Description:
The complex is a heterodimer of chains A (155) and B (390). By secondary structure, chain A is an alpha+beta fold.
Amino acid sequence: MSSSDNAAMTSVKQESKEKAREKPRDKPRDKPKMRAPRVNAETQEFWDATAEGKLLVKKCNACGENHFYPRTFCPFCFSDDTEYLQCSGRGAIYSYSVTRRGEPYAIAYVTLEEGPTMLTNLIDCDFDGLSIGQQVAVNFVDTGEGTAVPFFTPV
Amino acid sequence: MSIRGKAYIAGIYEHPLRDGTGKTLPQLHAEVAKGALEDAGLSKNDVDAYYCAGDAPGLGGINQAEYMGLRLNQIDSTETGGSSYISHVNHAAQAIATGHCKVALITLAGRPRADAKEKYFAKPGGGAPAEYGFEGPFRPTVVNMYGMAAMRHMYEFGTTSEQLAWIKVAASHHAQYNEHAMLRNVVSVEDVVNSPMVSDPLHRLDCCVVSDGGGAIIMVAPEIARDLKRSCVKVLGAGEAPKHLMGGKVDLTFSGARWSGRKAFDEAGVTQADIKYVSIYDSFTITVLETLEDLGFCEKGQGGKFVSDGNLISGVGKLPFNTDGGGLCNNHPGDRGGMTKVLEAVRQLRGEAHPKVQVPNCDIALAHGTGGLLGSRMGSATVILGGEDA
Lengths: 155, 390
């Protein structure tokens, strides 16, 4: 289980802790706790779209499959002829788990109408009323850094 | 046996790039892979083994395999600095010579100049893997990523918390005899389901312990084994398979054991009915349940019934497992349970497990590890071991 993913997460955690020390919170928490996404050359377009409230997946022009997380190369046929596709923002819960230690939050996989399943959190909902198969819609939360994080909420 | 003449280099590619600004590291690994495959006249789906060193982001090549959408029988991330790729040629040739793979991909990529320009947060290990930006904001933890696998298994197959609890109950029955085990008290199904919920549907007693410690293994050639006084355990077969999110075609109800187990059984030339003892990586109870199904000890979806009523308890059930108490009760050194799984299987085959849990006439045993996360990407590895007469 030990991995450099964990190492990456830890270092981001340390960074944000340092930031938190520099800038004390000036208002009570009214948004889910989150880490701002890390943006790079391959994902800039995805995160730019989130600021306009648009959720994108990648579509392959060679084999027609949609994929997520978005990357340059289609993971099904390895073509690099891929482009972003705007989603409806609607989907269904594939699975979820409410973490009960500390302030509870619900991590989930949501299967989008466009096909791919993506990791997210379910917010603005009764955690005890969640179920697999439940219909959800994207609910963007602004990070304050020019991006928004695609959370989901039952509809 | 040697590698001489057993393997060929069929395709190569050297990236013309000298400044990687505007391209990510996972993308560069994929670009060189595509170039070499085109040179060879092969496609991505022909690749069944992947070799990379510390310049590939993530966990030992698994994350890069996910980026490229690879389905693999062999993965190797030997890291010896700049010489790694020559070692990989040797290791790939050995794997091809012994039939563990047919088409091996070896990649190197780096962008130190672009990293410096972009003030990228560079780290050893190739930096953040490609998926990180799409997962980090949602606070995945080890427990909730396994919790989602359990939740989906319950939804599809009607598996219950009580059934999962039987796995912990069996481990605790074994741990009571292990003087080094962290948790030696025998627990009941009620104790497990009444323990605090950590992340739905996993309770505290569904989770393994956190421990310090370690382990080591010595492997020798047959002629050395013959001359040693110690009883030696024979390797009969092995299989490996990373499993990931498959570009968004997510299925959390099975692990890579589905593929690694088949390979190991084929090579060993034995069936599930021949296995007298199993060591199954038990990071969580759900890990054991899915693994037993994937290894073919029961039908997919029937794991809950299979583990119930003490079926995993030595001397009681049909398939004794983790007789040292496993990760659930004994230890989990460095958060890496694969080592201790091999060690207890060796003890069983030598007849040196605790007398209260020793499986009679234990001649063939299986050890299986799940590294990473059942809820996203993992490295699965199976080994089948036999006594001297196996």
